[in-house]
Amino acid sequence: MFSMLIQLPLLATFTAAAIYSHDVDLTLAETEKQTQAALSSLDDPHGARSVQLWNTLGTIHQAQAKLAEAEQDYRRALGLNKALPNPGKADESSILNNLATILQSRRDLKGAETLFRSGYAVLKENNLLDTPTAGSLLSNLGVDLEQQGRIAEAQRAYTEAALAFDHSHAADTADFAAFLSNSGLLSFEFGHYAEAISSERRALDIQDKLPFVPRLQRAYVLNNLGLALMETGELAEAKACFEKAVDIERGAMPGLNRNLVETMNNLAVLEEKLGRYREARQHQLDAEKIALESLPKNDVVLANIWNNLGLLSALQKDFKEAQRQYEKAAGMWLETLGADSPKYAATLSNIASLESARGHHKKSQEIAAQALAIDRARYGNDHPRVAADLVNLGAELFYRKKVEQAIDLLLQAKSIQQKEFAGGSPALARTFTNLGVAYWRAKRFAESKDSYESAIRAYGSMQGASAPHFASCLHQYAALLRVMQNFGEAEQAEVRATRQDVQSVLQGQPASPEASVIQSRTERHPTADSFDQQSAFRAVQPVPAALSSLSK
User: Fold this and answer.
1) Is 15 in contact with 551 (CB distance < 8 Å)?
2) Beta strands in 438-502 (DSSP E)
3) Which of 93, 216, 315, 461 might form a disulfide with 424, Cβ 3.0–4.6 angstroms?
């Protein structure tokens, strides 16, 4: 369910406020006219004031999604500044920062990095590192490095950005809120969801105290908070965050549809987690339509959507359509991000799950192992994505009757997840459920019972836990109890499971996927279909929104 960070330009300046805040009278078009009039009335069209106005005009055009015009404005400002007898160093750094964000939006990450580092060098040479401008530039550099997969360097950039904001006493600004949100994304990227939630909440708190906040900036932070909440199982609050963000983004001006597409994708992921497949598919189809009409044909957000449409098709047993969508997504990942991308690994996990559903378990195991290798190379051994890969690989070993090997992988996954999900999560709940199935197959009934009970506690601790998956776990637990001749407890578990099934029907969700197998009163083990692979929950691709701060 995770992804590399995708940069979304955001203007943390008064120009952005003019477009996104209802509390500001000036519209962006009016601000553009005023800036152009100011340029026309200058006594010296080549002076320092001209530099600042051209830079400001660039931020306005970038807010209007007129990227070519914005780039021309920034380059003109840069040229004018260099021609001055005493070039403004702060202005030069500001312009370089803004110009770099244009390159970032075009995925020219190396080119953007060069400009960010040039701006940093200017600040360092002129003892300007303890300024908000330095904090914004370093935060943007961190995002850029993160997108390139250079995580250690990104962490250093974020650390320096934090110091710059602290030393400049700018901890109550929109730029600092953007920095917090971006640093929260780094925590999200590494599976530290509690830290991510804390950072995003701090960003929202700062925004609440400001006289005005660019509305899209608030939408970005809400989106990022929703992602982290979704991973910790706080689904009701996550849904509220996504819906608020979508409402804001629907009111954004034309040319900024990518933000809306990405949040709709994330809302669809959440609906899928809740078992509301019809709603999830509609969100994805709406997002795909907007993306195809307004975004470049090779925009990676389309691969996210295709991957998720494939997942929904697979969940509804339309394997042919699932295969078609997965192949489109995988091709896009390879074209844009390469074969070592975690996003490509996520789609591989879904393809492995599809092969497993077709009974091709050896092939599925090979593909799942490939996904695990990619994620381990990127994140090391203790990341929740690696845990999800271990569960998927364990599933294939289980299907191939290598039960003890499957249990070993599941225990590794559980250890990773318990470190991050102390309060419970969908991932941990499903791993416990799978351990229950595997222990049962190995006739280790006491351990199976303990695992199911841990899964039930994990589901019970989550807001809006998926009723179908919870019900499935309860049905399996009841069946195990009957095998162990604990008939009274089994009856109680069945009653609880039936309540979850009813809740599913009332909410328009599918029935529990294993209920037809497990409800039997005979002493039978769950079939292989009862093993709850994590690819169906892990490999969908939510999209974090990284914020870039532009300077006037």
Assistant:
1) no
2) none
3) 461
